[in-house]
Write a structure and sequence with these properties.
By secondary structure, this protein is mostly helical. Helix content is 93%, strand content 0%.
């Protein structure tokens, strides 16, 4: 066997072995691929199932996505609305901040004004208190002087009246006595005339002449006495009239002085009322309501018919002390004194509210 044949034989052996090995490898590869194909088929089925489920889930997800998209659109609109609101709120906040700044500035200005007003009211209160003290002191001095003068004048006038009354009583008694004597003389004169007439009818002529002369002389004497008595009576009447005039003048003078004292007292009450009212008003405006009521009550003692005073007291009792009973009393007094006032209807409404509040106020237990 030559070399070529050997080589060919080796080649074919190698080729056959290679082919056999290739076939065996191919079988193994085929078997493996078949197994893989089976696995892939199973996987494909599983994948198909999963895909189907995924498709269902995807469809559901799409629906959810549509819902979510709709919700998203709604939320976007809401967010847009909220943004608009936030912008409005921010704008309003800015406006409020600007207003707050302005209000703070106004507050500072008002605080300054309030402080000035308080100082002014304190000064007014001090001034009013000083005026009241000064007025009371002046009134006391003036009243004491006038009372002393009145007492002295009254004493003097009383003495004049007593003297005039004593003299009047004496003159009246004398006048009665003179009138009695005059009546007696008149009766005596009448009796004398009657006797003269009787004697002239019974006696002789010479005797009659003598009796007549005597009667004439007695009559003249009686007439003179009567004339004197009448003159004295007239003088006494004049003195009586003079004394009565003195008594009337003294009485009028006493009334004049008493009227002057009353006028002084009335003027003091008027001035004192004005000062107490203004002082109460100053306390009222400075929110010192207790002090305001004290002054208002003093003013009320001096003048009970001032409607503004009742109005102010009613407001304090109603709004600040919630004393409905006293508020009602002063509301009614105001309406009685000023029935046609512009705010009469408003005050009447407040009165009704106060009555309702008083009615609904629970009563406290008394232990």
């Amino acid at each position: 066997m030559n070399r070529d044949s050997l080589l060919k034989g080796i080649f074919w052996v190698i080729a056959v072995a290679s082919f056999a090995g290739l076939i065996a490898a191919s079988c193994m590869i085929y078997t493996g691929q078949v197994d893989k194909i089976e696995i892939l088929k199973k996987n494909l089925k599983e994948t198909h199932r999963i895909l189907k489920e995924t498709k269902g889930q995807l469809s559901e997800t799409k629906n959810n996505t549509s819902i979510l998209a709709a919700k998203k659109d709604g939320l976007i609109k809401k967010v847009s609305i909220q943004k608009d609101r936030i912008e409005k709120f921010q704008q309003e906040k800015k406006n409020l901040e600007d207003k707050t700044k302005g209000l703070k500035a106004q507050k500072r200005e008002l605080e300054v004004t309030l402080e000035k007003t308080r100082k002014s009211l304190k000064e007014q209160i001090k001034s009013q208190e000083f005026k009241i003290a000064e007025l009371e002191e002046d009134f006391q001095k003036k009243s004491a002087m006038e009372k002393a003068m009145f007492s002295a004048q009254e004493k003097k006038l009383n003495e004049q009246v007593m003297a005039a009354e004593v003299l009047l009583e004496v003159l009246t008694k004398q006048n009665k006595e003179l009138v009695g004597k005059a009546n007696e003389n008149r009766q005596l004169l009448v009796h004398l005339i009657e006797n003269e007439e009787d004697e002239s009818g019974t006696q002789d002529k010479p005797a009659t002449d003598k009796a007549a002369d005597k009667a004439v002389q007695q009559a003249r004497g009686l007439k003179e006495k009567l004339s004197d008595l009448n003159n004295m009576i007239e003088q006494n009447k004049k003195l009586i009239a003079k004394n009565e005039k003195i008594i009337i003048n003294v009485t009028n003078e006493k009334e004049r002085i008493a009227g002057k004292l009353q006028q002084t007292e009335d003027q003091f009450k008027k001035d004192a009322f004005k000062l107490h009212y203004n002082l109460g008003l100053a306390y009222d405006e400075s929110r010192q309501y207790d002090e305001a009521l004290v002054e208002y009550k003093k003013a009320l003692e001096l003048h009970k018919l001032d409607p503004d005073l009742h109005y102010n007291m009613a407001i304090i009792y109603d709004e600040h002390f919630h004393d409905r009973a006293n508020a009602i009393e002063h509301y009614e007094a105001y309406l009685k004194l000023s029935p046609s006032a512009e705010d009469a209807a408003k005050v009447a409404h407040w009165l009704e509210q106060a009555k309702k509040n008083l009615e609904y106020t629970p009563r406290r237990k008394v232990f």
